[in-house]
Amino acid sequence: MDTFISNSPEETFGLGRRWAAELRPGWVVGLIGDLGSGKTQLVKGLAAGLGIPATVTSPTFALLQEHDDGTLPLAHIDLYRLESQQEIVSAGLEHYLTTPDGVTAAEWFERWLGRDWQPGQPLPESAKPADGQVLRLVHLADEGETKRKIFHEDFSD
After folding, report:
1. Which among 50, 56, 86, 100 could disulfide-bond with 104, CB atoms 3.0 to 4.6 Å apart, if both were Cys?
2. Mind giving me the DSSP string for the chain?
3. pTM of the model as a whole
4. For position 149, what pLDDT does the model report?
């Protein structure tokens, strides 16, 4: 598990921008963290690194924002308002979390993993990446007013 300490929103944005160079079609970036922990800021950096010119905001009420004008398509999902995998499937978002055409960045990814899942536990079957895909599971934790501890682990088939 790799750890990064961010001391500002700009550093979190920069981390996302650097990560964008690693992304390939089929990747899911699952973001876990409290409100204000930097999830959307990290996605803004991913989008910038993919050359997406649009303003990226959290899609809390829309659930999904699709950006097709970068080097890879980016689906930005916010699962905050959904309580379970069943609700996520009913909302038509399962494809983005299991077999995305481009890259998916999903905030509140723990809603997909299940409320009982904890870091260090095996992934549920529904969250395991398909052949050739990668899940980058990212945890963001507040360490102070602007300081964030960001750690991630990549899972693949």
Report:
1. 100
2. -EEEEESSHHHHHHHHHHHHTT--TT-EEEEEE-TTSSHHHHHHHHHHHTT--SPP---TTTSEEEE-SSSS-EEEEE-TT--SHHHHHHTT-HHHHHS-SSEEEEETTHHHH-TT--TTSPPPGGGSPPTT-EEEEEEEEE-SSS-EEEEEEEEE-
3. 0.95
4. 97
